[in-house]
């Protein structure tokens, strides 16, 4: 299975348009010390030709160039370079790209019932997109592996299993359901490899750890370095955990837990622009690397 990190920043991207926090300043003045990043999204494929987009970010138009650049020019007038979109939550940074893919005319979206409800009734991403394109919504069950199928209904050589992770519903959600924040286990039976994709999670509890134990590549929530990062910077009144994310450092932080999972390659993604790990020569980056983890960068590719 090929895994391409299309975007590795949290909502707002890096640098964020209106932000002059320390990492955003470095990204503008010295991009070699803090590489710009687009918003959180990955693409996966068993065969390198049929790609599945996990989360559709507002940067999807630019991000899909990673996929079209590697495919031969089609003989048809139009060519949609993805088989389907798979969603881990209904947040704007993970779903606004669905509306932006409306030119597809036909789009398949895998979502849990809780995520689909928010897209339908609250953000109205689904009804808005459906004014332009047929959206085939495929129900993503929890704790059950289902085969991914391509645009022609053929098996694409991957199975996908969703699992609930601790999180919070989007601010605009009218209901709060446990399947509104999920992780994905994407398995390639041909290689035996498994990707765990968890871009949003408040805690590495025992249930999440049991899922990560099955993975050979783990992409995990790296939103903030500390729990009070945004409060200390005066950017927000919310802690990282209050926003549904687990800090990397500090008590109960993700780094201490992930450093023990040496069976898998481990990579942070969904990194907020305030996070000092984005600065290449920061002590926080050094600490992540010393623990055996990577800080995800746009365009990075893994074979699982
Ligand atoms: C989140 O990850 O908590 C959300 O994406 C935040 C946001 O986009 O405002
Ligand atoms: Mn987000
Ligand atoms: Zn910033």
Structure description:
With 304 residues, this protein is α/β, with parallel strands linked by helices. The protein is built from 10 helices and 14 strands. The protein has helices spanning 22-29, 60-63, 65-68, 92-100, 113-122, 125-130, 206-212, 229-232, 254-258, 283-290, and strands at 2-7, 41-45, 52-54, 84-86, 106-111, 134-139, 146-149, 155-164, 182-188, 193-198, 217-221, 265-269, 294-295, 301-303. Strands 6-5-4-3-2-1-14 form a 7-stranded mixed β-sheet. Strand 4 (84-86), helix 4 and strand 5 form a beta-alpha-beta unit. The model has no long low-confidence stretch (mean pLDDT 97). Bound molecules: D-malate, manganese (II) ion and zinc ion. Zinc ion is lined by residues 15-16, 19, 21, 23-24, 273-274.
């Amino acid at each position: 299975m090929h895994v391409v990190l299309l975007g590795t920043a949290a909502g707002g991207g890096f640098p964020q348009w209106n932000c002059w926090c320390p990492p955003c300043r470095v990204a503008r003045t010295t991009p070699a010390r803090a590489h710009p990043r687009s918003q959180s999204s990955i693409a996966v494929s068993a065969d390198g030709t049929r790609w599945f987009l996990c989360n559709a970010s507002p940067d999807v138009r630019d991000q899909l160039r990673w996929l079209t650049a590697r495919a031969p020019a089609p003989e048809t007038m139009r060519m949609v370079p993805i088989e389907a979109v798979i969603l881990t939550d209904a947040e704007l940074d993970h779903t606004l790209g669905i509306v932006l893919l409306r030119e597809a005319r036909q789009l398949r979206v895998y979502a849990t019932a809780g995520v689909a409800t928010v897209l339908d009734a609250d953000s109205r991403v689904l009804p808005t997109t459906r004014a332009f394109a047929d959206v085939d919504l495929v129900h993503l069950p929890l704790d059950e592996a289902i085969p991914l199928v391509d645009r022609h209904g053929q098996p694409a050589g991957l199975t996908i299993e969703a699992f609930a992770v601790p999180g919070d519903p989007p601010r605009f959600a009218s209901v709060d359901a446990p399947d509104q924040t999920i992780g994905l286990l994407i398995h390639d039976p041909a290689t035996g490899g498994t990707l765990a994709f968890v871009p949003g999670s408040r805690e590495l509890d025992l249930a999440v750890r049991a899922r990560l134990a099955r993975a050979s590549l783990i992409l995990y929530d790296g939103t903030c370095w500390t729990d009070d990062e945004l409060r200390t910077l005066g950017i927000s009144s919310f802690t990282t955990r209050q926003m549904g994310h687990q800090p990397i450092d500090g008590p109960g932080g993700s780094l201490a837990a992930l450093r023990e999972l040496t069976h898998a390659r481990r990579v942070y993604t969904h990194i907020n622009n305030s996070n000092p790990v984005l600065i290449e020569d920061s002590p926080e980056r050094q600490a992540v690397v010393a623990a055996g983890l990577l800080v995800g960068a746009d365009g990075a590719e893994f074979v699982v």
